[in-house]
Design goal:
The chain is 45% helix and 14% strand. By secondary structure, the protein is α/β, with parallel strands linked by helices. Strand 2 (63-75) and strand 3 form a beta hairpin.
């Protein structure tokens, strides 16, 4: 179960799609095969596609990260709590910001600088692994993120299983095989919005259609859902009493109202 709540928490989520360049290199596909959609179809075919499942889950090393989102909870020196909704790329229409190197590198650098307590859903086996794999493939350096103490109790460690600094909700609530709920299955029964018209299978088609902004919006909603399920789990574990839990939920609603007032955030209004 969750051992503690640190002063800075990032509930995060990533979105990724099959990387056409990875497909070309790994499968030695012909140079004249240049269409990204065709390359993806070939990758799915090599990954065991069937009529029932035309887009099977591919190894994360063969996929490119297109978006990262996180809800940050910071407990300030005076005891007050501040929330921030963070997402990459900041400007999806900016080609440089939309590169995988920028998205992954910026997020890893921020982790190294801020050293928050990470919260994810299947993050131990999925999100953190793809960050490491793609960071290596892209030739990035992330010494702050990778730093480990000599002993687990002597500092922040994102890589030790059961670490206080890396909370995987699926690892906490899951069981064997079908006993593990999806984030959506857990969330909607808690009164938390889950998937709203878009799911993971829609991300690749949206990316091919140039709808990166929509992917980022979907990613932000998943980060919000991850945070709210973590909050409920932390309440279950005794880190927030009933009154504090209600206050923490209201902080999320207040944050959404602030973001909605900025304009252009219809997805957050729907979520609220």
């Amino acid at each position: 179960m969750i051992k503690n709540v640190k002063n800075r928490v990032w509930a995060f989520d990533l979105e990724w799609v099959p990387d056409p360049l990875a497909g070309r290199l790994v499968y030695s596909l012909p140079e004249d095969l240049t269409d990204p959609a065709e390359l993806m179809r070939e990758m799915w075919a090599r990954g065991g596609a069937t009529e029932e499942d035309p887009t099977p889950f591919l190894k994360t090393a063969l996929c490119r990260v297109v978006s990262v989102a996180a809800l940050e909870r910071r407990e300030l020196a005076d005891g007050s709590v501040k929330l921030n909704l963070l997402s990459l790329p900041h400007e999806p229409s900016n080609d440089e910001e939309a590169t995988e190197a920028h998205v992954v590198g910026t997020f890893l650098d921020a982790l190294g600088r801020n050293r928050p307590q990470l919260v994810g859903f299947n993050s131990l086996q999925s999100d953190l692994k793809i960050l490491i794999q793609r960071g290596i493939i892209l030739g990035l350096a992330a010494p702050g993120f990778c730093e480990r103490p000599d002993k687990p109790w002597e500092g922040i460690d994102y890589f030790a299983r059961g670490s206080d600094w890396n909370v995987d909700l699926k690892d906490i609530v899951g069981g064997w095989g079908l006993a593990s709920p999806s984030l959506h299955e857990l969330a909607v029964q808690c009164g938390v919005p889950g998937k709203m018209g878009v799911d993971g299978n829609d991300v690749a088609p949206m990316w091919l259609d140039g709808k990166l902004e929509r992917i980022v919006q979907y990613n932000e909603c998943d980060a919000l859902t991850t945070y709210l399920v973590w909050l409920r789990t932390a309440h279950f574990a005794g880190h927030f009493d009933t009154a504090a839990y209600a206050t923490e939920q209201q902080l999320v609603a207040d944050l959404l109202q602030i973001e909605i007032a900025k304009g252009g955030n219809d997805h957050l209004e729907e979520y609220l």
